[in-house]
């Protein structure tokens, strides 16, 4: 099974790029973030014509997540992260696809920091910790995938000294990520590329993509049931160079012989 995550930065504005990438890469399951579209504006028919079923959790102008599956049923399990009934931001969607639980997430940015947005990010992280722990207790194959808005280590950011006070790299945010992984999750991309400089996001400014001045903020976390089934993990770096593309590149993993 090939599973991908892609922050599309506007599903309708980037639809030609998304469809081109789907045709080229042909992932089996895709987690999308930053749809920036309400539910009724999701391009369901275009996605269907590309060969994918879809569920989505949209929001006007901001946020929004979706899960796509090629020739497979998607059984929705959860819409929204538990723990705060007043949180109306569309940032989490969970489904069962081919006996694997897929959690698609778009973690808050948190800037400017310090301030209310960082507090919301850390509170969201804490809710994610609790839910992830519960998912592990079920002892099922689980993949948490998406834009975590965290660079876990200095290897994951171009010129880390410039990011010390940014909400994507602050110590408490990195600790939250490491504590999450410490529950028993496997960071798939870093596991397959332990010492490589590998980025998933490149700003539109200052020729960041051309200079390879990026960040690794899009991640796959695998439950213990999938750790030994991970066969590949890559970034479709070239897609970031396409015209009218997202500032993120698609990231994908391959899992083989998934336990039933």
What does this structure look like?
Pfam families: Exo_endo_phos. With about 260 residues, the chain is of the alpha+beta class. It has one domain: Deoxyribonuclease I, Chain A (4-Layer Sandwich). Helices cover about 25% and strands about 25% of the residues. The chain has six helices and twelve strands. Helix 3 links the parallel strand 7 and strand 8. The chain is globular, with a radius of gyration of 17 Å.
Short recap of the structure:
The protein has 260 residues and is α+β, with helices and mostly antiparallel strands.
| Mean pLDDT across all amino acids | 97
User: What name goes with the CATH superfamily?
Assistant: Endonuclease/exonuclease/phosphatase
Q: Taking Cα atoms only, what radius of gyration do you get, to the nearest Å?
A: 17 Å
Distance between the termini: 13 Å
Query: Briefly, what CATH class?
Result: Alpha Beta
Helices and strands, in order, run as EHEHEEEEEHEHEHEHEE
Number of helices: 6
| CATH-level-2 architecture | 4-Layer Sandwich
SSE class: alpha+beta
In total, the number of domains comes to 1
Hey, roughly how much beta strand do the residues contain? Answer: 25-35%
CATH topology: Deoxyribonuclease I, Chain A
Apparent shape: globular
The parts where pLDDT drops under 50 for at least 5 residues are: none
Total count of strands: 12
Oligomer: single chain
Strands in their spatial order, largest beta sheet = 3-4-2-1-12-11
Helix content: 10-25%
| Main pleated-sheet profile | 6 strands, mixed
Site (Important for catalytic activity): 218
Cofactor: Mn(2+); Mg(2+)
Active site: 106, 147, 248
Pfam family, one: Exo_endo_phos
